[in-house]
Recover the amino acids of this structure.
């Protein structure tokens, strides 16, 4: 308050004092004096009193000069002063001042009409509401029954009940008289008057006078030897008469916790506390406040001891206590991209499955209004670095997430950290209000200001290592500590002049260090933590009564979590909105795919030129098509992983909280998966549309899209698993190359599967390591499909296959058999027994195979004679002829196939009109480079001997796989499994989706996450 | 002639490898390349050379084009079981003039001549009837044609 | 020679009673199998074998020292795109072969390489690429600047093809290749021989090639059951007719003995080509060639 305003107030007092008779002037001065005492130092009081007297004289003179007009004059003057006051004083300051005025004119029990009007005018000028004026006036002048707002009155007396039933009443033993409190809801203030004359009621170290009105501030205590102490919180309790049904008792009994690695934890601690209070846990940094909080809220299970609510164990009976406990961690739980409103809205939807949309809207808006967040409800929350709302607003919003369902037990971790003192006060007021409404609020706080400190109903102090050293009323704490330390001024828990409690004192005393003979700190504490702890155990702790173990009723919770499907829907909507709100994210993700497609397509679009134009682009001549296909698969894998890598990790805290609320983790995962699926579908479609267009791939949009989509989904799920399992974003990004490089290397395009390191490579089928790669399935599917099912090759595939097979058998298989026959006959040198047996086995196997695979070939009659012992020249000759016959057979088949091809072309020419159109079709649909790869043209190795079989290497795209177990060589056109023959495209897609489902299940059951944690623990057990 | 002798030795040497090849094919395609005699290095091998499956007692004709101003060398060879091979060179004029008959030359297996006018030459190849009634006696028969420009 | 006796015995046995294959297999399999064997047997024996020189030999007869290299006369290898039927693939293979023979006369490395590769591609389409030595392509590409071997290589290659075709009973393809080669040779030589004059020896030599044409045709007729052969015969019909009409001087063949003891075959024979005939021939060849190279 500035000096000029104080002078203005004194002027007002001076005017008022003119209403009093002269013999009451001293009385008025006393009131003014005690009022000044609350505002200025002792020295200045005399000074201001003198100013007051001066004004008084001044006005008296003026009144004498113009006797008739004096009242009007003073009214006008009063009004002017009030205007001035209105600009500078807060409501509660005005109220206090007004009460002084009322006290002054209360020199007699009733008001004259003049006085009445004057007071009323003043009240109006001071912008008091009518209710407020009436309440104040009645409080002073009327009997209590006349107070309009009876709810705001509390009377303390030693009677059991008050004469006036409508007002609150509190029976206080030994009270010689009555103390009446009035609550001004406009200013959230209490004022009191008392009629006690036999006792000394001390407020802020000063005696209070009966009949005077005093401001009862937060944290104030009214003491007397007879009645003890009356705390501010006690008074509050009576005003916010909580529903007795929802009251409960919270008890911790000998809870203890020890961290395995550090040895820190919480020492055995017991306390109990009723609902309707604000408990503050204080202590230096690192003493274990958060650990204690988590022990109390059920997140951490104590190694011994119990935490109960009305007898129900918080750790083992979570189901019964579902929804009772709320927990607001120190970290932000907000979704940055959403608005303030939306953050709260979705949270509300997840808490109240039983409310309608309208109801939730109302609820959310109300809460936002209560928390003074309504004006900013449509602002994006933003990140801590990129703020749209202030720190205080963020904190309030975080709190609102829990408050919306009004949990009976609310745990808050460091609600004021990082906030300005104004914001801190606002937040603390909020929490205090909750306590006032009957909740139990437990907060951790490191360095409370004295104002905040005064809000606590109970205080728990922790010292190093998690040792409790004090539990009780916060105002009593400095007393206790000073007494223990035997400091002077132990009785002065409040600072007399400034009215502030100094909580730092407490920590200072606890942590005080010994001073050595040179006057320096030794670093050794005066009292060790253990000493404090023992003292606590001896002097402070109240062991819980054993009878408290009886279970009473659990307070009913508002929480009604919606079903799993609804949760899924909410998660999905939330995710969607948050993504849509982040325009940068949207833009990048939606444009990335087509942009990549453009780049890929543009650079690989090799235009070989034609006879007519040098830059003409002919699809069939584009050498780079296979590269495009493979890179497309890799792009799909990358895109999938990039969008999913961070998805879960950034929600980490939110997930924890939602688990706390017992929300379905499955629904959460499913919503992520669905969102990513849709995003992947959009991205891969965009990619295919752009890329295929540039490359001139016609008519294959759907198969390309399907395959790339499947590959992208694989990446999505892999990324989600990684995101779920690792602790930091950085480690995810470091892991990504490790996951994707093998896909590139072992996809089948960079390195041939039969040319890998011999210990891994396989000559007959794709090795297992290859079958594990999503890229292998995707790339093969596309390569095979593009070749085999292109509009052109579709006509020819079957006949080409026959051609290929016949040619292979004719030119390679049978000649190789003839060569082997050579080796076993005696004509060639070196009888190597092992080799000969091997060769015989080979012959037998292949002959059986030939007969089985072609119905035109009968089984070789003397097949069992192809044995080292039974072999004769006759058999040799027979076999030669047999083999020659087979050659002839395939010669014919080959001829027929070539004829057939001609016929098909003829048919096509007729169908399309002329031959040029057929050639054009080939140019548009048949890519030579791809054909070269899938037919393995560059390789001279057409057939090899491998494990008693002859393995065909020539033209894999036309070769049937040998195995019936689903495995096959790379570029196989079909896969065989059991009796079925399935097209490679579908089979490979099925393989991809099998892997997808596997990773989906891994996600659900947290298999990868658990494995990573487990191995992490194993590796770092020593630490 | 010395060089052709060397060539003969060389080619007979090839015969050692022949069985491996021969055993498997009833195919006579390159028979002449390994079994027939060749002229000296001044002659060029003509693609008109041919081998084919021949039945004992059969008569076959090979019609070639002989260019004017070129000297030609022909040689025949055949599977042993076919016995001695007789060949005649017949002109394509209306009279089918016999220009050469190796029966009149101790059944020599080769001949060379200068050709003055471009014409078709028919080389008639035959063997004696088989002693047994086995008309299934077949074997490969080869004809080598070589040429060079007359200087 | 050695095993043939055995072969024949078995052959006979099988031919008579060999139809009894596995009782388990279907009747048709045995039949098909047998049929294949007998089929191949039947093709083996002919009465007349028609032979004709290769394009290299034809060029050699022409005396190439007078010829110029004119790349524009060749069939561009880019045309290969249009050859999707076996008919045109075979014919053009012959054309490219003749082009290759022509290029070889001038020691042109790059063009030789291009055309060899083109021939290889066509052979792949015809499924006769196995004719080429495994390492042929590598041999070609590694033979930098060694022009002599290039000729050997291309010669080798073509011999390989011919042998392969013969072994694999694809003589009909050979007929088509040969005819293609012939047409191209005629096209090249007719374009390079200059203006008509009765003294132009080259034109006389070109006229002589009628015999080659006839032999190729007769050779082809031996396989006239093949569709492609029928087509080819139809395609060259105008040329056949033309040649039938050309005047020919024939006289009796003579055998004389030269002073060194060499035989000399002579004949009063001359294929005559009038100026009209010459230009008509040019036109006909051009027509046929265009049809082949454009695959219309």
């Amino acid at each position: 308050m500035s000096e000029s305003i104080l002078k203005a107030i004194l002027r007002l007092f001076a005017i008022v004092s003119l209403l009093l008779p002269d013999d009451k002037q001293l009385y008025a001065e006393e009131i003014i004096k005690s009022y000044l005492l609350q505002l200025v130092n002792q020295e200045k009081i005399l000074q201001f009193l003198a100013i007051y007297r001066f004004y008084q004289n001044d006005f008296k003179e003026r009144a004498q000069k113009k006797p008739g007009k004096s009242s009007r004059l003073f009214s006008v003057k009063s009004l002017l002063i009030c205007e001035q006051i209105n600009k500078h004083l807060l409501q509660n300051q005005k109220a206090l001042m007004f009460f002084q005025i009322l006290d002054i004119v209360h020199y007699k029990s009733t008001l004259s009409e003049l006085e009445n009007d004057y007071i009323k005018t003043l009240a109006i000028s001071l912008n008091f509401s009518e209710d407020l004026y009436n309440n104040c006036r009645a409080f002073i002048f009327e009997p209590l029954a006349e107070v309009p707002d009876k709810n705001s009155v509390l009377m303390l007396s030693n009677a059991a009940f008050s004469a006036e039933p409508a007002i609150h009443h509190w029976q206080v033993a030994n009270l010689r008289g009555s103390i009446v409190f009035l609550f001004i809801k406009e200013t959230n203030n209490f004022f009191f008057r008392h009629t006690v004359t036999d006792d000394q009621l001390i407020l802020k170290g000063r005696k209070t006078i009966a009949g005077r009105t005093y401001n009862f501030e937060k944290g104030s205590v009214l003491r007397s030897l007879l009645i003890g102490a009356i705390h501010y919180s006690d008074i509050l309790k009576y005003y916010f008469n909580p529903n007795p049904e929802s009251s409960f008792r919270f008890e911790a009994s000998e809870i203890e916790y020890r961290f395995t690695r550090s040895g820190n934890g919480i020492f055995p601690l017991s306390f109990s506390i009723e609902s309707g209070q604000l408990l503050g846990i204080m202590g230096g940094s690192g003493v274990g406040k958060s650990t204690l909080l988590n022990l109390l809220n059920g997140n951490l299970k104590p190694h011994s001891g119990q935490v109960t609510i009305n007898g129900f164990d918080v750790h083992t009976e979570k189901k019964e206590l579902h929804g009772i406990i709320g927990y607001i961690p120190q970290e932000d739980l907000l979704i940055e991209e959403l608005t303030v409103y939306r953050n709260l809205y979705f949270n509300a939807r997840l808490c109240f499955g039983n409310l309608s949309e309208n109801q939730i809207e109302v609820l959310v808006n109300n809460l936002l209004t209560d928390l003074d967040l309504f004006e900013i409800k449509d602002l994006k929350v933003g990140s801590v670095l990129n703020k749209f709302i202030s720190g205080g607003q963020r904190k309030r919003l975080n709190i609102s997430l829990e408050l919306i369902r009004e949990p009976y037990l609310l745990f808050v971790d460091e609600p004021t950290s990082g906030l300005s003192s104004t914001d801190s006060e606002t937040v603390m007021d909020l929490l205090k209000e909750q306590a006032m409404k009957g909740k139990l609020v437990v907060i951790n706080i490191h360095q409370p200001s004295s104002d905040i400190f005064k809000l606590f109903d109970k205080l728990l102090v922790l010292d190093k290592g998690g040792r409790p050293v004090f539990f009780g009323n916060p105002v009593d704490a400095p007393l206790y500590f000073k007494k223990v330390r035997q400091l002077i001024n132990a009785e002065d828990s409040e600072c007399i002049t400034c009215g502030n409690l100094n909580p730092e004192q407490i920590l200072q005393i606890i942590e005080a260090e010994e001073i050595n003979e040179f006057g320096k700190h030794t670093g050794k504490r005066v009292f060790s933590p253990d000493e404090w702890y023992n003292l606590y155990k001896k002097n402070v702790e109240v062991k819980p009564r054993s009878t408290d173990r009886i279970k009473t009723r659990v307070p009913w919770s508002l929480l009604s979590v919606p079903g799993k499907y609804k949760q899924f829907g909410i998660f999905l909507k939330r995710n969607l909105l948050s993504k849509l709100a982040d325009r940068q994210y949207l833009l990048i993700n939606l444009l990335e795919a087509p942009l990549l497609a453009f780049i890929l397509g543009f650079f690989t679009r090799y235009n070989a030129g034609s006879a007519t134009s040098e830059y003409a682009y002919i699809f069939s001549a584009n050498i780079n098509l296979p590269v495009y296909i493979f890179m497309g698969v890799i792009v799909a894998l990358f895109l999938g992983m990039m969008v999913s890598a961070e998805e879960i990790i950034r929600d980490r805290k939110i997930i924890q909280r939602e688990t706390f609320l017992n929300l379905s983790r499955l629904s959460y995962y499913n919503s992520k998966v669905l969102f990513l699926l849709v995003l992947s579908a959009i991205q891969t479609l965009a990619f295919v549309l752009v890329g295929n267009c540039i490359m001139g791939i016609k008519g294959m949009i759907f198969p390309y899209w399907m395959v790339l989509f499947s590959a992208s989904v694989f990446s999505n799920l892999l990324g989600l698993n990684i995101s779920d399992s690792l602790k930091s974003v950085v480690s995810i990004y470091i892991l990504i190359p490790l996951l994707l490089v093998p896909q590139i290397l072992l996809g089948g395009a960079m390195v041939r599967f039969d040319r890998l390191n011999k210990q891994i490579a396989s000559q007959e089928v794709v090795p297992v390591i290859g079958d594990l790669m999503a890229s292998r399935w995707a790339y093969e599917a596309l390569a095979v499909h593009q070749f085999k099912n292109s509009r052109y090759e579709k006509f020819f595939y079957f006949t080409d296959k026959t051609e290929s097979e016949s040619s292979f058998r004719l030119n390679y298989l049978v000649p190789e058999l003839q060569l082997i026959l050579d080796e076993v006959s005696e004509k060639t040198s070196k009888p190597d027994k092992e080799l000969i047996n091997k060769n015989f086995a080979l012959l037998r196997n292949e002959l059986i195979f030939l007969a089985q695979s072609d119905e035109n070939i009968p089984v070789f009659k003397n097949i069992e004679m192809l044995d080292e012992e039974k072999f004769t020249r006759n058999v040799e000759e027979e076999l030669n002829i047999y083999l020659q016959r087979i050659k002839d057979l395939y010669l014919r088949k080959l001829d027929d196939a070539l004829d057939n091809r001609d016929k098909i072309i003829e048919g096509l020419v007729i169908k399309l009109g002329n031959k040029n159109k057929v050639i054009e079709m080939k140019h548009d649909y048949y890519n030579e480079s791809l054909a070269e790869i899938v037919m393995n043209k560059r390789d001279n190795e057409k057939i090899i001997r491998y494990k008693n079989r002859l393995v065909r290497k020539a033209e894999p795209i036309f070769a049937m796989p040998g195995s019936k177990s689903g495995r096959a060589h790379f570029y196989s056109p079909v896969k065989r499994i059991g009796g079925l023959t399935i097209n490679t495209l579908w089979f490979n897609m099925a393989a991809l989706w099998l892997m997808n489902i596997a990773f989906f299940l891994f996600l659900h059951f947290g298999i990868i996450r658990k494995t990573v944690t487990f191995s992490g623990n194993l590796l770092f057990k020593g630490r | 002639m010395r060089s052709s002798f060397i060539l003969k030795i060389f080619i007979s040497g090839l015969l050692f490898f022949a069985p491996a090849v021969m055993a498997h094919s009833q195919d006579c395609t390159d028979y002449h390349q390994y079994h027939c005699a060749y002229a000296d290095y001044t002659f060029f091998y003509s693609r008109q050379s041919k081998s084919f499956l021949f039945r004992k007692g059969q008569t076959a004709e090979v019609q070639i084009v002989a260019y004017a101003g070129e000297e030609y060398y022909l040689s025949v060879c055949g599977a042993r079981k076919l016995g001695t091979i007789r060949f005649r060179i017949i002109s394509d004029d209306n009279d089918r003039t016999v220009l050469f008959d190796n029966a009149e030359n101790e059944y020599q297996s080769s001949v060379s001549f200068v050709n003055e006018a471009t014409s078709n030459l028919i080389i008639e190849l035959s063997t004696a009837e088989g002693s047994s009634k086995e008309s299934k006696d077949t074997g490969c028969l080869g004809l080598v044609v070589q040429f060079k420009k007359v200087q | 020679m050695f095993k043939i006796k055995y072969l024949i015995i078995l052959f006979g046995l099988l031919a008579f009673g060999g139809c009894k294959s596995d009782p388990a297999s279907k009747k048709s399999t045995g039949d098909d199998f047998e049929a294949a064997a007998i089929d191949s047997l039947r093709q083996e024996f002919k009465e007349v074998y028609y032979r004709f020189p290769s394009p290299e030999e034809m060029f050699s007869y022409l005396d190439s020292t007078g010829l110029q290299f004119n790349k524009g006369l060749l069939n561009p290898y880019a045309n290969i795109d249009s050859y999707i039927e076996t008919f045109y693939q075979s014919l053009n293979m012959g054309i490219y072969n003749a082009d290759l023979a022509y290029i070889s006369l001038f020691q042109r490395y790059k063009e030789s390489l291009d055309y060899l590769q083109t021939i290889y591609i066509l052979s792949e389409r015809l499924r006769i690429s196995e004719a080429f030595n495994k390492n042929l392509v590598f041999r070609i590409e590694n033979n930098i600047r060694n022009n002599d071997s290039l000729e050997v290589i291309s010669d080798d290659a073509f011999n390989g093809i011919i042998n392969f075709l013969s072994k694999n009973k694809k003589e009909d393809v050979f007929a088509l290749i040969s005819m293609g080669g012939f047409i191209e040779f005629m096209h090249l030589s007719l374009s390079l021989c200059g203006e008509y004059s009765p003294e132009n020896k080259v034109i006389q030599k070109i006229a002589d090639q009628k015999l080659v044409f006839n032999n190729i045709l007769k050779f082809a007729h031996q396989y006239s059951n093949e569709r492609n052969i029928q087509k080819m015969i139809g395609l060259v019909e105008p040329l056949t007719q033309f040649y039938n009409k050309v005047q020919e001087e024939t006289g009796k063949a003579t055998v004389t003995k030269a002073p060194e003891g060499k035989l000399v075959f002579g004949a009063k024979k001359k294929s005559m080509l009038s100026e009209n005939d010459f230009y008509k021939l040019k036109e006909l060849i051009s027509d046929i060639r265009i049809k082949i190279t454009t695959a219309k």
In short: Residues 10-25 of chain B have pLDDT under 50 and may be disordered. Chain B touches chain C through 62 residues (CB under 8 Å). The helical segments of chain B are 2-15, 18-22, 31-35.
